[in-house]
Amino acid sequence: MNPKVHATRLLLALAWVTAAGGMASARAQAPLVDLLRGENAVSATAADAQVAERVRVEVLGPRDTLFVGEVADVALRVWVDAQFAQDSLQQISARRLDAPVQVLATWMETHFRAPSASEAAEGASIALGDRIVTARRLAEREHAGVRYLGFELNANVPVERVGELRLAAPRVRFAYATSFRATLIDDREPQDSRVVAVDGTLAAWPVVALPEVGRPLDFGGAIGQFVASVHTDRDMAVEGEPLRLTLEVRGAGNFGAFAAPRLDREAEFRVVGSLAQPGPDHLRVTYDLVPTSKRVVQTPRVELAYFDPTPPGEYRRAVAAPVPLRWRAAASAAVGGGPAAAAGDEPRPGMAAAGSLFVLAFVFVAAAVLLGSLLWFWWRSRKSN
Questions:
Q1: 36, 153, 259, 333: most buried, per Cβ within 10 A?
Q2: How far apart are CA 185 and CA 191, in angstroms?
Q3: What is the spatial distance between Cα 196 and Cα 57, in angstroms, rounded to a whole number?
């Protein structure tokens, strides 16, 4: 083979690799929805009304009636005609999405709840506003002989007042094409891209106040479904020494909006400090307790009074099982002298200083005697000579 031809082919190959790498880098940094804005957005036609039927959006609430103070789990679902997604739906950005649609809903963007780690592993990337999030994949469903792919976004929406919770209608935007061509870079480059918007409907639910009947006196505003557990930093209660008790409350509800259980009414313990650390799906409370009774055999019984809004809606209690404890008297008391005896063994004020002066005086006297002895021996030896 001619060396010049070989060199030319090698240079072309290197140029193609460099260009591909540059395009991949640009794709990673490209705007999220570059096909849905500006000069890239081509006006929809009358025929697009039929295409809009290929994508549907719905909003689902947890129940028909909501309670003021709760955090409502609201789901927004997008359904896409599976055949349409395969044949005509195109990516809306150089950053490839599993579900190439853009969801526009301010309330969802504000209160979006990311899926759990297990759900995210099986989830699908989708555009929510101008960012990429992970949606739950739903089981395929069939309607009027058409198979639909489903994707779900979830939001924790706080219910703040009695009356009605209203959520604005969401909008879903996507791009499609009916004609494609193969290129060196892309084997499916669209030739007649169109942008279509599909609007959902306004969602609203009545909101009522929590019932007064059956409300516990220690109810602190917790609404949802909760479980509680406790653990300690050790299994032994020592007289007069603080014991650290940690309460964990988990579940689904209005974390961060209700008070932690109080333990200051316990007869066998004295609370010397507590710290509440709420999270999006948990509440952790650390109590420092000092045993006040020699009959302590377990930690206090910790209960969280809460309202469960699931029908029929009633007050419940999440109870944390106490932790068994072994009792040990204080070290001073165990010797048999009691607190007073232990105090008697303590050095009185000034004893340490007096001892130090005595040692210093002894050192000076010893040094003086030693020096005198040396002078005396030196004088005697000189006189004898």
A1: 153
A2: 15
A3: 13
The residue assigned the tokens 């719905």 is 58
Residues 34 and 167 in one domain: yes
The burial class, CB within 10 Å (0-12 / 13-18 / 19+), for 384 is: exposed
R_g (Cα) of the chain, nearest Å: 38
The beta strands (E) that lie in 27-98 are given as: 55-60, 66-67, 71-81, 89-90
Per residue in 98-109, pLDDT tens? 999 999 999 999
Same domain, 261 and 174: no
Residue with tokens 């992970």: 134
Residue 198 belongs to domain spanning: 28-208
**CA distances (Å), 232 to each of 242, 243, 244, 292, 329, in order?**
11, 7, 6, 17, 19
State the amino acid at position 186 in one-letter form.
D
Looking at the chain, the whole-number percentage of residues with pLDDT higher than 70 is 72
pLDDT tens digits, one per residue of 247-260: 999 999 999 999 99
What is the H or E stretch that residue 163 is in?
Answer: strand 163-167
Domain count, the chain: 2
Among candidates 127, 299, 313, 157, which has minimal Cα distance to 228? 299
Which secondary structure element, helix H or strand E, spans residue 376, and what is its range?
helix 351-384
Helix, strand and coil in the chain, % to nearest 5: 25, 40, 35
Residues in the chain: 385
Q: What is the CATH number of the domain that holds 273?
A: 2.60.40
